[in-house]
UniProtKB/TrEMBL annotation:
Provenance organism: Arthrobacter vasquezii
Residue span(s) of domain HTH lacI-type: 13-69
Keyword Ribonucleoprotein: no
Keywords: DNA-binding, Repressor, Transcription, Transcription regulation
Name of the protein described by the UniProt record: LacI family DNA-binding transcriptional regulator
Record GO terms (molecular function): DNA binding
Lineage, uppermost ranks: Bacteria, Bacillati, Actinomycetota, Actinomycetes, Micrococcales
Record has Translocase as a keyword: no
InterPro entries to which the protein is assigned, alphabetical: HTH_LacI (IPR000843), LacI/GalR-like_sensor (IPR046335), Lambda_DNA-bd_dom_sf (IPR010982), Peripla_BP_I (IPR028082)
Source domain of life: Bacteria
Record SUPFAM superfamilies: lambda repressor-like DNA-binding domains, Periplasmic binding protein-like I
Length: 339
């Protein structure tokens, strides 16, 4: 098969053209441009081929090179709805930057949680012999892994699948909950409420565990009556406000920034001020909310960018996997003016 490139004038340049210009065989040109291991080619012939390629403006056909070598410089990323989430595809951004850093290009398929579209995307990536696949979900959860994904190296990002044998990178929810509570403790608060989600998830369990852990280290007994279940939306935080005020707490750790936004509304309606009367700490660092509330909301960030970058490093073998457990990425505090 003759591989086509593109000349300086956008005209196709073939290996045959290179062979003629360099005075060598087409087979020699193929070995040089594909950097074939073990090919016995003299230095002079190799130099002439490279000079002819520069002169003619030859660029190898990437797909043909992939098929001949059995691998590619592509990394696939299959996501359920990540490109349409409020976090604006930071996982994709992080993975793309890290891939570029190591000479790879990211191929992204956003499937909108459609299994047929997901299978088609994975099969297409396999046909293009991607180096591996990152499989990501828009929120941290346990998933069922598509069968086809086992045909190549795969890393799960922002999700996990116990028993699948696949490495994963996820947010450290417990550390994040601990950090949020520690920020409130450091501000001098001792009676701290936690508004937790009613939806079972690693975030629900992990952030509560972190809250309890921080209180324990500070020598404060855990009070179950200060944990308030709420829908993880603005309405959930707003509806919880009367209970928060009745509890006589001086600070509140909210499951996410949307809950905190609702709590802001409720606190203001009761004639109270943030943080003078009640301090508020969020989680997620959903910038369109947190940075624009008044006062701006102190929160803990979900490390979406780093999740994508860490997934690529794990796929390329740069970082080590932690065995049967997911690699956990730190959720850092973002300090503003609500505590």
């Amino acid at each position: 098969m003759t591989t086509l490139g593109h000349g300086k004038n956008n005209s196709p340049v073939t290996m045959r053209d290179l062979a003629k210009a360099a005075g060598v065989s087409v087979a020699t040109v193929s070995h040089v441009v594909n950097d074939k291991p073990g090919a016995r080619i003299g230095d002079d012939a190799r130099r002439r081929v490279k000079e002819a390629a520069i002169q003619l403006g030859y660029r190898p056909n990437a797909l043909a090179k992939t098929l001949s070598q059995g691998t590619s410089r592509f990394i696939g990323l299959v996501a359920d709805a990540i490109a349409t989430t409020p976090f604006a595809g930071q996982i994709i951004h992080g993975a793309q930057d890290e891939a570029w850093k190591h000479g790879y290009v990211l191929l992204v398929a956003n499937t909108d949680d459609n299994r047929a579209a997901e299978d088609e995307a994975i099969n297409m990536m396999l046909e293009h012999q991607v180096h591996g696949i990152l499989y990501s979900s828009w929120y941290h959860r346990e998933i069922t892994v598509p069968k086809a994904i086992h045909q190549t190296d795969t890393v799960l990002v922002n999700c996990f699948a116990d028993g699948s044998g696949l490495p994963a990178v996820v947010p450290d929810e417990e550390q994040g909950g601990r950090t949020a509570t520690e920020e409130l403790l450091a501000a001098g608060h001792r009676r701290i409420a936690f508004i937790n989600t009613t939806t079972p998830s690693p975030a629900q369990k992990g952030r509560l565990a972190g809250y309890r852990s921080a209180l324990e280290v500070a020598g404060i007994a855990f009070d179950e009556t200060l944990v308030f279940p709420a829908e993880p939306e603005q309405e959930g935080g707003y509806a919880t406000t009367p209970k928060i005020i009745d509890s006589k707490v001086t600070a509140v750790f909210c499951h996410n920034d949307r809950v905190a936004m609702g709590l802001y509304d409720g606190i203001r309606e009761h004639g109270l001020r943030i943080p003078d009367d009640i301090a508020v700490m969020g989680f997620d660092n959903q910038d369109v909310i947190a940075a624009h509330l008044r006062p701006p909301l102190s929160t803990v960030a979900l490390p979406h960018y780093e999740l994508g970058a860490a997934g690529v490093r794990l796929l390329l073998g740069i970082d080590d996997t932690s065995g049967t457990h997911p690699n956990r990425i730190i959720c850092p505090p973002v300090k503003r003016h609500s505590i």
